[in-house]
Every structure is written in structure tokens, then in C-alpha cells.
Amino acid sequence: MRYAFFPGCTLESAEEELMISTLKVAEALGIELIELKGWTCCGASHIQDVDDFLATSINARNIALGEELGVSKIITVCNTCTLMLRTAKDKLDRNDNLKTRVNESLRGTGMQYKGNTEVTHLLWMLIEEYGLENLRKKVVRPLTGLKVANFYGCHILMPPKIMGFENHRNPQSMEMVAEVLGAESVEFDQRLACCGFHSVFPAEKEVMGLTGMNTLSSKTSGADCLVTPCPLCQMQLDAYQPDAQKGFKEDITMPILHLPQLIGLALGLSPEELAIQRHVVDAIPMLRRSLQLV
Amino acid sequence: MRKIHFKIKRFDGNKEWYQDYQLAYEKGKTILWALTSIREQFDPTLVFTSACRHAICGSCGVKVNGSSYLACKTSLDEVLDTFKTDYLTFEPMGSFEVIKDLAVAWEPKMEKMEKVKPWLIPSVEGDVEGGFIQSEEDFHHIASPTDCILCGICASECNQLAVNDGTYLDPFILNRAYRFAVDSRDGSPEEHIRPVIENELWKCMHCMQCATSCPKGIPLTEQVAFLRQESIRMGEVNNQGAKHAFAFVNDVRTKGRLNETMLPIKTDGLFKTATTKVPFALRMIKKGKINPFHMPKAVEGIKGVQEIYKYAEEVENR
User: Fold this and answer.
1) Inter-chain CB proximity B245 and A14 less than 8 Å
2) For position A294, what pLDDT does the model report?
3) Matching CATH number, B107-233, of 1.10.10.10, 1.10.1060.10, 1.10.150.120, 3.80.10.10
């Protein structure tokens, strides 16, 4: 299986462990990921607030880079990158006038947006194309006894007319993957909540409150760790957790894993190979205890 | 016989409790049918609001299993299928003061809405006696926002309102500001937009809940983007939200990718970053998540990226 890979900015810096774990998991599953050469930031849900034509154009270029590779799909591992690329694609495919103007703006890149390559998230690809039964066959260390709180993050679900992989009011993809890996999914109130990352600067107080509510809710439900398919949710819930704790009397401590890290553990990779030691809230003692790792 | 089990949150003005009811399943019914049947068959004290039954009056918003719906427009079968259960929990909409059971108070929301002057401020081209002429194209700009039925579902699902002290404007209020700001007959768009800026416009979390849950399909998040663009055009750029957005715009222009290390400084300024973000930065450096000495190189093809910017500025935004 061969896909174009759009990593997104966080995978090069603060969330580099997601780059490491994604590549390790892809290799173990026999999935070839070809990183797009010269990809740019997707706009991260901010650029359209200044200029929506620009936001569409830079992503038309990103998608065109994938089209040049002649693959059927571009894979992302970030909810917001997925939404931004799919939003641009949706606009371009529905509006010929916009597509003509955007392609005019791409003249200097030597490329054109054609619209023949899909954008998908690793989570969706594993279910739709790789197949959960094939994933199950690769599990060498079932995550038996590990209780996971699946935190979807908004942008992998909404708006459904652009995302639409599953019912946004009651998605099940994360639970399906957790089941295949042998982990137990816990029910918790904040399963479909927002992490608040995109407004953490202008709404710091509110977002810290939300962060604490999110981790505390998973903790109260008995989860050993929270798992998310989005590096921005991960960063908000993990790196800001000590700041969020200041607003709570209760202990809100909760290790936060990236989805590929959870998969990698079941594939037999060590926490260190998956760069889990890079998290602010140390997840390794919990993993050693729950999975009897040495 | 298949039974549907309802757990409804009750409130009598003092205490709250959940009360259980059961109805025999019937195919092809709505959520509002369930509420009406419960009241008629079992409990005349159950309070909820509804009127038109045609998704026009906007009075029957309710939360079912944590998700907000317009009761008259939503099929019970759809909800049972969504949650794969015959057990449903009904609660009043979020971010509203509850009067009784599922009935919520609109007066505080209406008072808040007045801030954006949700009325037409006539332009000099028109007057009460002579009327206003509006082209079909201009009418289409207000057609979608005018579809709002004030059901409050957007507010019930808004993630910012859920944690906000009440200052932030509900999405349906932002929609009113937008609706008059883009109306060709309105002579003073800034009078609608200024209060939006002054009431935490940049706190929208961009979660997409409002646009997703709106029973009328109004693109509320695109309106937030429009209001932010307008605020920038009005010169309101010296705030965290606008500075944060410009940090992305400028990083993509110069390098193609975000410089995460510099982002807090570009958003908050050096002084605030130095005084408030040091513990955060130190823990990130300690875990190797930030390398303060890493300066990203420009991506391959950056000249082409810059040509896109040039086109956007010179042709699109002329």
C-alpha cells in the first residue's frame, strides 16, 4: 500500500513523537508513506480568518503535490490538517470559477490542482483500506487490561458534509481500533468534547478549564490513558496539563497517547521506539504497570 | 413489544431529578412526538416548549443523549439508530438558564443580542417612505443568515459558551451581526461588528459544532471568519487573536511552515511570553519538544508559495 504523506507542522517540532511513531507503525504494517516534498502549513484553521482565498490556494498546492505523485490518497495524522485540506478540496471541486482562479494563483508553482487525489486520515484508512482484521493479525502484544479513553477531537468529525466518515454524534472508529488492539474503551462524558487548542492564546482561562475537565472526566471513568487521533488535542491535553491543574483541586493527571503510539504498542514496539518518553505527563510508568512491560 | 425508555431531566425551580418514562415503539415518529405522548399519556406536569411542528418557530430545541436536536425536525428512528440504543436521556439545552424541566429562558439571550444592533441601520440610499432597492445578488448574501429560527441549538453545542463567563456572543447572535453587516441596505456595518469585537470574537474555538448542529444549515463558522476578516479591515489587529492568525500567514509566506518556537512571542509579545510562558517553555525544552535554536528552513518551492500570496494580494484582494 502506497500513500502520499502530509505530516503537518507539529510533527516537525513539538509533536515529533507522532512523526516517529507514525513511521514506525506504517513500516510494521507494510504501508509506504511518501512525504510530500515542499508541503506547507495547512493554515491550521487560522489563515482563513485573514484571507480565505489564500487558505484555499495554499492547500490546493499541498494537494497538487500529492497529485503529482500519482497516488490515490494523501494521508494525514492530524485532525485539523485533514479538515483544512478536505475543506479546500470541497470548495475547489464544487466551484469551477474558484478552481480556475486558484489554479491561476498556482502558476508560479508549475503545478495545477486537478482534483483526482483524495485526502484521508490514518484512522480512516486503517478501517476503510487496510482493514481491521488485517490489523488484528499484526497484533503481537494485545493491550489486555489497558483502559483507554478515546478522545476524538472535533476536526475529524465535523462538519460532517466535509468529513463524514462516521456519525459525528456517536462515532465508533476509535473504539473499533481499540478493540482490535485488545484494549478496553471506557465511556466518559468528554469523549466528543473540544480540546480548545485553536483558541488557547485568546481564551487561555477557558481552554485551561476545558483541558482539566477533559482529563478529569477520563480519569473519573477509570481510564489508564487518553488516546487521540490529533496531535493538537494531544499537545493541548498533555503539554498544558500542568497549567490546567492549577485550576483544579482534584488531581487531573492523565497520560495522553497519540493513536499510532497505541497501535505501535500492540504491534510489539517499545514505548521508547514510539517516543512516548517525550510526553510531558509521563505515560511510561502507567504502561509498564498495565501492560507488564519491562 | 418493543419499548423505548426515556429518562428526562426535571427541574421545578428548586430541585433537579431524572424521571423515567416508557413508550411503546412506533415507527416514523419524531422526538417531539415522544415528548408530547409522554405529557399526554403519563405526566401533564412535564414542561417543554413547542409550537409549529415544522421547524419554523424554533422553540423545541432539546438535548438527547448529550447532543442537541430540534425535536420536531428529528426522527426518533434516526436518534435510536445514532446511539444504537432504546434508552434515551432528555435534558434542556446547554448554555441556557433553565426555567422548568426542558424549558429554557430566552430573555437574557435577547438582551445580549441587542448589543449587535440586530436591526437595519438604513443607508443613505434608502428611506422609510421611498423604500430600498436591493439587487437579487445582494439579497442572496442575506438569504442564508436570515434562515435562522432562533432555536438556540448552536448555543447549546458551542464549546466556548460552555466554559465562558457569559461575555462571548452566542453563534446565533454572531449570525445576526453578520446578517446586517452584509445587508446592502445597511449603512453602518461597523455598528454591528464593533460589539462583536468587543465581546471576545477571537475566543471562538473553531470546533465547527455550531455549523454542524444548525438545523437550517447556516455556515456559522464561515461567518466567524468573515467577522474576523472585517475586524482586521477595521484596523483591529493589536490583539492576540489577530496576531496569532498573522503569525501563521507570515510564517507560511516566508518559510512555508510554522515556527512553533516563535509563535507565543508573535502572539503575546516578548514581555508577556517571558513573564507567563517560561514554565511551559522549560517543560517543552526538557522533553525535547521545543528546540529553541531550531530555525526552520524555507520549504522546497517557496518561491511558488510566494507567488500565490502575490496573486491573492494583487488580484483577489485588489
Assistant:
1) no
2) 62
3) 1.10.1060.10
